[in-house]
Amino acid sequence: MTLLIDPHSPLAQAQQTQKVRTRHASKPLSDADQAQLRTLLDDERYDFMDADEFHQDDETAYDELFTNAEEVPKPETSWYHPVMDSYKKATEAVTRSNKATVVLTAAQERVIFKQFNYCRYRACRLREQLSQEAELDADQAREMLRWFRRGEFIRDQIANTNLALVLAMAKRTRMSEVDFADLISEGNMALLRAVDKFDATRGFKFSTYACRAILKAFSRQGIKLSKHRAMFPTDFDPKLERSNFVQSRREEHEDDCVDEVSRIFNDNIAELSDIEKAVIDHRFGLSEDKKLEDASPLTLEQVGKLIGVTKERVRQIQNKALDKLRLKLEDDFLK
After folding, report:
1. pTM for the whole thing?
2. Phi-psi bin for 268: left (phi > 0), alpha (psi -120 to 50), beta?
3. With helix as H, strand as E and coil as C, how does 284-310 read?
4. CA–CA separation, 101 and 57 (whole Å)
5. Using CA of residue 189, residue 195, residue 196, residue 197, what is the dihedral sign?
6. What is the pLDDT of residues 268-297, one digit of tens each?
7. Which of 262, 276, 282 is nearest to 329 (CA)?
């Protein structure tokens, strides 16, 4: 039976072989097992915290750490919601957790962390043996996967037991500029990293180590957000997301109308009289000469003095001329 291994993995390159085969393969590994095995063989970050008990005889170490060890109570996590979107909900969850969460003693913590790291120790030891062989033993591969999965189960148990630490630290942080759900997510990831890195043999409580790790993760999240805002200072503004299509079309239409009115006036398509043309020209500057002069429009009184009529008469002539231009514009252009 041939075990599928990525030919570009470090294991395959170190072995310098074209194929990796398994011995004693009475039952083939499933595709899921093979994928997980490849991940484990290539993962250099998968490690453990060493302890003296691990280096005894395997049977003796197992009896001491599992068979004869104090039983560790399982956590109850029905109170926990994976996405806490407000401080109020977090406060309610912490209140429920105080009644439901299991608080481990220092002795129980040492037991469960040694069990967790011993599972990783056995998996790493088998990984080292497998990486040094040209042919993989299927039984050893299954044994490695068994220890890995048992370690992950204990890791989840430790994390579930200490979920309330994330909410408690989030309540203390009060980072209003950070989305609360993102803060909880970052805290959960920091809690898992703390489980991997905690050394129970030093005699400290896990909560002391984990709380500092979670707070540092929150601090990094705040710094990351500050840098992002410094690079992109403009926050989301609904006005910026609104389309200006209608406004731009209206402006284009108005410009077209102005050009058309100027054409109608200059070509005298509306059949304006000389006095009407003079009034409109002085009042609005539609002629080509007025546009070139860039002169300010004259008032009704100023136009009346120029053509020798009263201000009221200028207004009447203007309104009549505008009606003619409007009708011609509507007939020839707008329709």
Report:
1. 0.59
2. left
3. HCCCHHHHHHCCCCCCHHHHHHHHCCC
4. 36
5. positive
6. 888 888 888 888 888 887 776 655 455 678
7. 262
